[in-house]
Automatic annotation (TrEMBL):
Keywords: Dioxygenase, Oxidoreductase
Keyword S-adenosyl-L-methionine in record: no
Region: Disordered, residue numbers: 1-20, 59-96, 290-310
Residue ranges with Low complexity bias: 59-72
PANTHER family attached to this UniProt entry: INTRADIOL RING-CLEAVAGE DIOXYGENASES DOMAIN-CONTAINING PROTEIN-RELATED, PTHR34315
UniProt protein name: 3,4-dioxygenase subunit beta
Pfam families named in the record: Dioxygenase_C (PF00775)
Gene3D superfamilies linked: Aromatic compound dioxygenase (2.60.130.10)
């Protein structure tokens, strides 16, 4: 009779990094490895989901991705504050250290909570370009994206949602430099134009440390789309807030009215919206990334989300 051999657990053929713990507790690097091993499937699924929300971010007649700039029009994405609610470990909570953050659908919390953020559906597609490499599509770049919910609250920080981590997620750019997320349309809170935050990392292994970010910026949403969405139930507080701010007065976008950060948006309330933005990253430029706002940013003189101090 032969001795019984220990059988080590695996997932999709990959041995657990922490054999004595559950799949959801295998850590960020295990998640990244899983993502990269089946990236083609995940990216295709994320893109299809975004297209399902609004058939608008597919390829154009010339085969290029719609919503992105040609190399002749591309400019470097402005470096902006990450605000005081980044959740990247630079100011308290660190969602980037949690297993489960690598996902395309960021509407729900993961881990100890499964709460889903409500709101008008929104697909997000960013195309990342490596400007130091002749504007090549930045395959393999990792993008961490986050934004406030329909009530203007940031998960992990704002009162009532400190235990949530929804509307935060990481994706790795495919061969076309594209990352795609499924989310909900964010609120407009007092003092800030409606926006999303993101950080770009040179590769998947770098996202475990926020200091490795090579670009930190924000995405502005068009006024007409915001006005349409905010007429919907649940966004009532955003109507007045939007009327009191503009792209020209916003503490982040006022320098150029958000010219290079204003997303292309298509779709409607019934079917959901899809937003797209070209993100030019110059790795030859030293990143002035992250950090809390020094004025006019999230939580600073320029705006404070509901239920937050600052």
């Amino acid at each position: 009779m032969t001795a019984k051999q220990d059988v080590k657990p695996t997932y999709e053929g990959r041995p657990y990094a922490r054999p004595d713990e559950e799949l959801v507790d295998q850590g960020l690097q295990f998640d990244i490895g899983t993502l990269l091993s089946r990236r083609g499937v995940l990216v295709a699924g994320a893109g299809a989901a975004a297209l399902g929300l609004a058939a608008c971010t597919g390829s154009g007649d010339d085969g290029s991705n719609s919503g992105t700039a040609s190399s002749g029009e591309l400019t470097e994405i402005p470096q902006e504050t990450a605000g005081p609610y980044p959740g990247d470990g630079s100011n308290g909570p660190d969602v980037l250290a949690e297993s489960g953050v690598v996902r395309s659908d960021i509407r729900s919390s993961f881990g100890s909570s499964t709460t889903t953020a409500e709101g008008v559906p929104m697909g997000i597609e960013l195309t990342v370009y490596d400007m130091a490499n002749d504007n090549a599509r930045f395959e393999g770049a990792a993008v961490y994206l986050w934004h406030c919910d329909r009530e203007g609250r940031y998960s992990m920080y704002s009162e009532g949602v400190e235990g949530e981590n929804y509307l935060r997620g990481v994706q790795v750019a495919d061969a076309d430099g594209v990352v795609a997320f499924q989310s909900v349309f964010p609120a407009c809170y007092s003092g800030r134009w409606p926006h999303l935050h993101f950080e770009v990392y040179p590769d998947a292994d770098s996202i475990s440390d926020s200091a490795n970010a090579i670009a930190t910026s924000q995405i502005a949403l068009p006024q007409d789309v915001c006005e349409t969405v905010y007429a919907e139930e649940g966004y009532e507080q955003s109507v007045e807030n939007l009327s009191q701010v503009s792209l020209e007065s916003d503490g982040i976008f006022s320098d150029d009215g958000g010219a290079s950060q204003l997303a292309t948006v298509t779709g409607d309330v019934a079917g959901g919206y899809a937003i797209a933005l070209a993100v030019g990253v110059d790795t030859a430029t030293e990143a002035a990334a992250g950090g809390m706002s020094g004025g006019g940013g999230d939580g600073g003189p320029g705006g404070t989300p509901p239920g937050s101090e600052g």
